[in-house]
Design brief:
Length: 350
């Protein structure tokens, strides 16, 4: 039996009918036992969420210490998902009020006309903001079925579909310039949002998903990793692999049901060989942990043993994690990673 409360809630959140084709296949050679959630992990998550609660801005946003007007939709979405990942939802859980404040901010932020989600100042990487914010809305809708969230989510998904490049992915800005290459990191961010929305019953054009899958596959390199930029089809990407974006590429291939694809199998070998130590503090481990959780078995056991102990060790006395950026971003990522075995977020369910 898994050692965490709320199994009834987890069962309610299982959206089996909405999972990608092939999601029912047994992809692990041993089941999860719940042993991942050690007292040390549970305590670290609690300290991390307490830190986020103390550092949430009054309007519900998170900006990473940028001061007034520094709110960022990506960081806000990540911190919101950290609360959700422990089982907190509006009206339920220790951090229910914090989740409600994130939802309220997210429903008001950005451009209501176009659906673009961003903070008070449009950043260079606004599609990162939009992607993570949309992912949060999808997870929040899946756990609440709130129509207000659904309407904002539908507009956000529509914008993602409308800004897809000919090359199959997305760029830092919602720019459909002819011939533009796709940034694999931004592409993964949008595709995760699409997958999450589809899983909770929001319509996502199949052609958009198909083009994105093709884009990610064309980013695959000979060593099993994934490249940075993807040209227009049918050309494949060059430029070599890097661990963080390779973890992201593998994660989304699993997320879209491409379990038996050559690119998935080779990507798994690559990531297993690299290990979490070379992922960077958060971005790579965020995606790598999700990918290895989906892979299951020896891959998951090996990965989780390394990353969970490392994160617990590196947590600061105030409950935060630092490294890649500021405290709220790192802490939100750290909490999500350590909460993966809870299996509460619809995007994380096998």
């Amino acid at each position: 039996m898994r050692r965490f409360a709320g199994l009834a809630l987890a069962a309610v959140l299982t959206l089996a009918a909405a999972l990608p084709a092939g999601a029912g296949e047994d992809r692990s050679d041993e089941p999860l036992t719940g042993e991942e959630l050690t007292p040390e992990v549970i305590a670290a998550v609690g300290r991390g969420l307490d830190y986020l609660a103390r550092n949430q801005d009054r309007d519900g946003s998170f900006g990473g210490g940028g001061g007034p007007g520094g709110a960022n939709a990506a960081v806000t979405g990540i911190c919101g998902m950290a609360f959700l990942a422990q089982g907190n939802v509006p009206g339920r859980g220790k951090y229910a009020k914090n989740v409600e404040k994130v939802v309220d901010w997210m429903l008001k932020c950005g451009d209501q006309r176009t659906g673009l989600l961003h903070g008070p100042q449009t950043s260079h990487g606004v599609m990162y903001e939009h992607g993570f914010a949309t992912l949060f809305l999808a997870e929040a809708y899946g756990m609440t079925q709130d129509d207000k969230i659904k309407r904002r989510l539908q507009n956000a998904i529509r914008l993602i579909a409308q800004t897809q490049l000919e090359s199959g992915g997305w760029w830092y800005q919602p720019d459909r310039s002819p011939g533009k290459t796709s940034d694999i990191s931004v592409t993964i961010c949008q595709t995760m949002a699409l997958r999450a929305a589809r899983n909770v019953g929001v319509n996502v054009p199949q052609k958009t998903v198909d083009k994105a899958v093709d884009c990610v596959k064309r980013a695959a390199q000979a060593d099993g990793g994934f490249a940075y930029q993807v040209p227009n089809p049918p050309a494949k990407a060059g430029g070599g692999s890097a661990p963080p974006r390779s973890a992201a590429g593998l994660c989304i291939l699993y997320g879209l049901g491409e379990y038996n694809a050559k690119e998935t199998k080779e990507g798994l070998k690559y990531l297993d060989k690299i290990g979490p130590q070379q992922m960077g503090m958060f971005y790579g481990t965020y995606y790598g942990t999700q990918a290895m959780y989906q892979a299951g078995g020896k891959y998951w056991t090996k990965w989780w043993t390394g990353i969970s102990k490392d994160l617990v060790k590196k947590q600061q006395a105030d409950g935060s994690w630092t490294g890649d950026g500021y405290g709220t971003y790192g802490t939100g990522m750290g909490c999500i990673i350590l909460c993966v075995p809870y299996n509460y977020l619809p995007i994380l369910q096998r």
